[in-house]
Amino acid sequence: MDIKALFGFEGKPVLVTGAGSGMGKAAAMLLTELGAEVYATVRSKPLDFPVAQEIKTDLSDPDSLDKLIRTLPGKLEALFICHGISNNHLRTNGLLVNLTNFYSFKYLTDRLVSRVADNGSVTFISSNGGRKWRASLSKSTELIACQGWEDALRWYEANPECTARGYAFAKECQNAYVMTKVWSEEFIQRRIRLNAICPGLTATGLTATFDASINGDPEYGHAVLEKMFLGPWKGRWAEPCEMGYPMV
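RE: above sequence
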């Protein structure tokens, strides 16, 4: 059996958000090579590889998300929800960080899981930054229980200490969503797999903004992150393809 047949994506429609760069791009390119019919969201720049359809989407805006949902096929083999922004936005808009990095993930998954094929899959890109998700589980599950975008906005407003934590809280919520939903009827009754990968330092188009998110100085931030995550074991930065492959 060849590798394309083993993966089983030939001719099957999939959604990849955040396909314009980094890990999302790596996953989308591999899926294309495997013969999948890739529906890819882009923020502004067009893709430099072929897909079935590019869909310009503001993944922090419910109207744009609803437009994306209407554009997609009635059946999908899998969802690869890969988009995200760094904590560099936290100084001006912690809500934007949370809506982009978590609530849009939940919003899309909740509304598209009914279109995912039996034995299909949903995969998030979370982060090592969400590793303390158990400590915030009570708050995360409150947010996960919100019904709709306006309900979530009210929750964020009522919980400013969570909103202010930005990227880390958003990634903790992703991990909590997987934990709380993986046995839910809409997934388990149709054998739809739900997973999140939680990468450490990976060199992507967001690396510079992540570096700057600590105190505004990219060089200082880069050194701090390397010392924290790579220094203890003399590690290296991962490449996006090393994350895209296990996602697929």
